[in-house]
Amino acid sequence: MNFIAKIREDKPFIFNITNEVASNFAANGLIAIGASPAMSHTPREAQDYGAMADAVVLNLGTLTEDRGEAMLKAGKAANEKGVPVILDPIAVGGTVFRTEIINDILATVKLAAIRANAGEIAVLAGALEKAKGPDSMIEKNDPEIAKAVAKKYDTVVISTGETDVITDGMRTALCKNGHEMLQNITASGCLLSSIIGPFVSVADDKFQAGVYAVASYGIAAELAMKKAMGPGTFILALLDELYFLTDEKVKRYKQIQER
Ligand SMILES: Nc1ncnc2c1ncn2[C@@H]1O[C@H](COP(=O)(O)OP(=O)(O)O)[C@@H](O)[C@H]1O
Ligand SMILES: Cc1ncsc1CCOP(=O)(O)O
């Protein structure tokens, strides 16, 4: 499927409850890929937005009581309308408050995908006690750990790192696209979580949508680094390359191993 052409045709409406660090970057990245974003975190409009969106992204960075309440409301409203929900459980296990909210979401909202770094996925699997912070990492991005989380929550899991793992518990793909400069800017994972929204919104097969989204984002980062001089110019170049990305480029440069 030509995901990027389809996104640009449909312009899916992506409702994000995300953190204040990522908010502007994620909105710009979503526009660049062809989607139509809205950012809001008041519980008073979460239900309406959750029900009218084409996908909902719940990102636990800079969590507040209000954001937690809004996420539960938006997630439940989205579920009632069959709108896919993506969870980014930033720093799960790191504090009691966020871990409780994440557990509430996992218990009450049906997720289309969970996108997190390998350390956070290990915490969800019960393989690690706590993630150290927004950028927690474990040495190895183990596909078996991601598969266990996918089965546990009956969802697609996208576990990121140098090699990304995408799995629905049955099918697994490894993606080698990306660039280490993504580690030198903030909110690169948050932007990926938001970018997964339009991809899962235009396809029934959420696993294939996840694979395509991860490869697309990684390729945009690789192309951006051909022009960037450092983190500052990389941020701008990444937005440019998301804007100029095509299905042809994704098919030409993707480094996916399915197994
Ligand atoms: N060492 C690396 N080399 C290339 N790409 C990486 C590397 N580490 C992470 N990435 C990429 O950076 C993005 C954010 O992933 P990650 O850093 O794991 O998430 P988070 O920001 O949530 O901690 C992903 O697209 C991932 O593929
Ligand atoms: C720095 C920071 N603090 C709270 S959220 C956030 C952004 C983290 O973004 P990412 O995990 O994608 O780097």
Q: How would you describe this structure to a colleague?
A:
With 259 residues, this protein is α/β, with parallel strands linked by helices. It has a single domain, classed as UDP-N-acetylmuramoyl-L-alanine:D-glutamate ligase, CATH 3.40.1190. It is 51% helix and 15% strand. It has eleven helices and nine strands. It has helices spanning 3-10, 23-33, 43-52, 65-81, 96-108, 118-125, 143-153, 188-201, 206-225, 231-244, 247-253, and strands at residues 13-17, 36-39, 55-59, 85-88, 113-117, 156-160, 164-167, 172-175, 256-258. A nine-stranded mixed beta sheet has the order 2-1-3-4-5-6-7-8-9, with helices on both faces. A hairpin with a 4-residue loop joins β7 and β8. α3 (43-52) runs parallel beside α4, α6 crosses α7 (143-153) and α8 packs across α9. The longest helix is centred in the last third of the chain and has 20 residues, at 206-225. It is globular. The mean pLDDT is 96. Pathway: Cofactor biosynthesis; thiamine diphosphate biosynthesis; 4-methyl-5-(2-phosphoethyl)-thiazole from 5-(2-hydroxyethyl)-4-methylthiazole: step 1/1. Its cofactor is Mg(2+). GO terms for molecular function: hydroxyethylthiazole kinase activity. Keywords: ATP-binding, Kinase, Magnesium, Metal-binding, Nucleotide-binding, Thiamine biosynthesis, Transferase. It comes from Oceanobacillus longus.
